[in-house]
Design goal:
The protein contains 20 helices and no strands. Helix 8 packs parallel to helix 10, helix 12 runs antiparallel to helix 13 and helix 14 packs antiparallel against helix 15. The longest helix is centred in the N-terminal third of the chain and has 36 residues. The protein is mostly helical.
Amino acid sequence: MKPDEMSHTGVDQILERINSLEERIALLESNKAEARHLQPANEYDAEEEDSVFSDLNISISAPFESNLGEYGLAWLGNIVLFFAIVFLWQYFNDAGKPVLSMLVGVISVAGVFTLAHYFRKHFSFLSFMFNLFAFVILYYVVLRLHFYTEKPLLANQHFSAILLLSVVGVQLYFAVKKQSQVLAGLAFAMALTTAYVYNQTLAFFLISLSTSALAVLSFWRFNWWKVLVFIIIAGFIVNLAWLLGKTPVSVAKIPPDLGFRFAFLFFSVTAAVYSLVVFRKQEVSFPGNIVLTTLMLAGVTYSMLLFTLVVNFFPTTFVPLFMSISIYCIVYSVILKFYSPWKYAPALFALFGFVAISITVYDVYRFPDSFLLLICQSVLVLVLALWYRSQIITLMNTFLLLILITLYYSISGKLQMVNFAIPLVAFLSARTINWQKERLNIKTDFIRNIYLFTLFFSLLYATYNGLQGRYVTVSWLFIAGIYFGLSIFIKSIKYRWMAMGNLLIAAFYLFLVDLAKIDLIFRILIFLAFAITSIVISTYYVKKIKNRDNGESVV
């Protein structure tokens, strides 16, 4: 075959291939158009309605006037309309016509829902607002059938509460159907309001707990993290108002102490429900810090509720409560270490558990006797941090220890066992952190330096208060020698600086205090001891340290 014929044949094959592809594309388009034509009209309506009533976000890139006119006035108009309906309902109710007022409420709700449906195609945000406020009006009308009215139309409180929960259920159904966090958050808020106004202890517990569980489930199922955060805050406000304004045993008719223990159990179980979010794996559909935010919010709100409960009802008998919290938190932290994808979760629960243990120790032994156990507990926390490989636990334990030591010195500072326990704990902690800094993922010496500063000053304080005046300078010289020996043994410049610092402080104390107070013979011995120690260290420093390579590693 000639080259020209071969080229002509190749072009024909390419053209034939292109024509075949065009025929296939045309066939696919015709099938798609036919399927679209045969699709039921109500399915289009449902999809359009779903898009209309889903959560709508205000565009910040649009002009201010446009946002104010479209969104701001829609909010303002619906709020004014809500109050107008409320005042009209109140007018007929005050006039002694509760049936007519209920009829006004029913017509108003139906009218607002009708407006939402009518505006759904061309005024999507306005339609969304009508739909939202229609549920608010409906809940308000049902609420006033029994609650907050002198002449209730419905005398049965339980039936009225069931109607309110039915409204919440219907709204939650539409929230899931339309995938609307706003409707869901409003439904959960209404559920909490129902629990509060119902004024039944057990019902309050169950409704509030169920609302919290549904909020966690909505985050787990639909990634509604905004709803979860909102309900934690709203639930705290409602629970605090209930705790301060109502007696948890007013209706239950049980002993007060037992009733308030039920309240503690309810708050604890609610916090435990929120803590389940630590088993949720990271996804791009929600922010990475939302799990930590949820834990922190739940922990802070639970602590505030617990503090209010204890101060008002268990000021002297809260040990069993905090012991149960500590056991739960530590056991739960161990579980999270193996099963939670979030590395910080076990550390947070372990810290909370040890704080609960500290409160328990304080209540049993009180201050200042409890300081010894509390300070020694920090070593146990550090060991747990090593097992968890947690830098968070190490850092928080350090600052909590500093707060505890400051509190001890400001309150007492006279217990010799505590005075010497503080430098011992600081030394062990500093060496442990230096030994296991890679396991703890510690990159700097910041935490270790805190412990060394604590060791330096607390040991000076302990020897000053624990020994007689004539032996103070000698003990400080002895400590300086120990520091210098440690610097040689572990090759650390930090302990050499601590040794020199001890020598300087001992020198000031020798000339400012000892010269005026101690006998001549002790004065001579102390001066000799100080001179010998200084000369020995100076000699060693010149021969062994000064000539070393300046690049010596510091441990």
